[in-house]
Amino acid sequence: MIVTIIGLGLIGGSIALDLKARGFTNHVIGVDKNPSHTSIALKKGIVQEIADLKTAVQKANLVILAIPVNAVVKLLPQVLDYADENTTVTDMGSTKAKLIESVVSHSKRAQYVAAHPMAGTEYSGPTAAIYNLFDNKMAIICDKENSDAESVTIVEGMFKILKMPILYMDAQEHDIHAAYVSHISHITSFVLAMAVLEKEKSINNIFNLASGGFASTVRLAKSSPQMWSQIFEQNQHNLLEVMDTYIEQFKIWRQCISEGDFEALQDKMEAANAIRKILDR
Amino acid sequence: MIVTIIGLGLIGGSIALDLKARGFTNHVIGVDKNPSHTSIALKKGIVQEIADLKTAVQKANLVILAIPVNAVVKLLPQVLDYADENTTVTDMGSTKAKLIESVVSHSKRAQYVAAHPMAGTEYSGPTAAIYNLFDNKMAIICDKENSDAESVTIVEGMFKILKMPILYMDAQEHDIHAAYVSHISHITSFVLAMAVLEKEKSINNIFNLASGGFASTVRLAKSSPQMWSQIFEQNQHNLLEVMDTYIEQFKIWRQCISEGDFEALQDKMEAANAIRKILDR
Lengths: 281, 281
Hints:
2 copies of one chain form a homodimer. The first copy, chain A, has helices spanning 10-21, 35-43, 53-59, 69-82, 97-101, 149-161, 171-200, 212-218, 225-234, 236-259, 262-272, 276-279, and strands at residues 2-6, 27-31, 49-50, 62-65, 88-91, 112-117, 139-142, 166-169. The first copy, chain A, is α/β, with parallel strands linked by helices. Chain A has 2 domains: 2-169, NAD(P)-binding Rossmann-like Domain (Rossmann fold, 3-Layer(aba) Sandwich); 173-279, 6-phosphogluconate dehydrogenase C-terminal like domain (6-phosphogluconate dehydrogenase C-terminal fold, Orthogonal Bundle).
């Protein structure tokens, strides 16, 4: 199996490492518009060959797009144009509805399997690529019924090699869920970082006190702005809904604190403790 | 040196373990109103003796209060009443101004050293006590000039044994800093947990998608409601100020997303990325 990976960043690079190491493929072809990414990827042994988009797609049995979601919208139709009729195309984007929309009437739509591996770190680029990034994380395949059974089987096989249990859902449902458990976490981390950095201007050494709790809460604020602004753009509607739920809750908390109703606040915290059942399972 | 620890939870228990293991003391006396805590602490070897408050304070060279901050306000004057004139008293509370206020005119005020070790986990109780919890985290001593030099030296010695670098600041300044780098992180985590749990009621299986980023961001929502509601109460004024800065930023982000100004949003994320300089140092 020849695998072409478009986008040799954290996700694309990490997939390449595992698929090769675990025998899913012997030959990974890399495509990346950034020449420093391609040279690092070759040097680190992430890919065995670098090619232009057309050549790379034509040579591949499986093409994986691991680029920011707006770039997927632009490239996906072209990738399907170049693809042989036996080639499977998939993407690793954090949003799904608009990506699928971009090829809804493409003659080779059925060769495309929309997917999302729920894994990552706050780092980016091929130097961030690591082995075992995906082990035991969830993968989602969307709108499976609109893809050829053969193509779905190939992508399922890839996720199996990556040790990812697979969930199936429709793209709209995926985007709502992703807004709640991934996208909003990034927003609150970014905003917290901004609020604290804003204050830092007027108070010296505020960060000498930064403890593990703070680091954990703002970790995602180190994430790639280019990648995440596109995810927020594509999931605009769902994200606004979640943000409104969040801001409503935040205001209730502010009111409790402002009015000195710490008993009500303690009740709310006990309710929030229920998050343990999700985190500790 | 005989050390009495009042409150055998995560912090008190962990201090006891390290002070004994590292030879700062051979005998730790524990006080806790919860009988299951005292029996676990004895069984786990966290303390060598359990005593009532008065006896435990009278026997000690150093008394450490490691209880919720409202309980410190209540107990601290009484502890100083019981304390021999050569006994040093300190506390590990996350707020400082109101604790100090509670003994400002006490005849033994100078035997008290107000302190805050910036370390912890989201777990609580003596079963959560662990070795090496404090290594390389910051400790703060507040209003040092109002404590006897001998007492300050003893508390500094304790933090040295716990491998904590020490910062000195006044109590007001401490409480502002703590609001920014610790207390607000807990608020945003609790609120995020609430917002997502709220949605869970109407959407099945939302959490199958919960990834590492979500877990990291809401980790603090597992924290003790009893402990944190008291911290929020005592730091009410500073916390409201931080919450207002946060909510203002959050609304600007919402506006960018709602108006589709993703270029401005990307600029903001790049600004937020500056948090790396604090997290990665």
